[in-house]
# Entry
Amino acid sequence: MRPLTREEVRDAIVNLDPATKKVRLPARFDDVRWHRIDYLGWRDLRAPKHAYLVTEADGRAHGVLLRQAPNDAAHGSRAVMCDLCRFARRFNEVSLFTAQRPSRDKRERLDAVGLLLCTDLDCAVKVHGKPVREAVDRPVDEIIASRREGLRSRTIAFVRSVAEPRRASERSASGAARRRRRYEGP
# Structure
């Protein structure tokens, strides 16, 4: 990922609340090793349930504001897979994050996209980790490169899915399904 400026990162967040429009950058923004990451992810220290995810695609920075849902302790010690890095972790190390789609219409601001994501947003560290190899596996460099490419493509796909407005056909189909449920009952 190419180095981004503070202004680029702030301008990249597409789903900020129009009233606030404030992004708190990570405390160590100047120390980011851009060549080692595939996205910039950080938690807002003043709002612990808020996180930001910024990536680069087509020469531009794209980013979203995420909100963390509370973890459900009923899962016990189950393993949960992160949707971005595809590594399985303990249930308390992966959380559901949602991102509201940007819209000028207040009714459509309730539309959100969610994904299971490493709570500490350190997918790049896991992707760069040395894999356990068998005799028939590809070389380590190829495995890490394919992991990085997968992480990058999934991150870009998620950010774009938040930024792009839903098509009218999707909105009307979901509205029709809601009306059907209302009249048919649960």
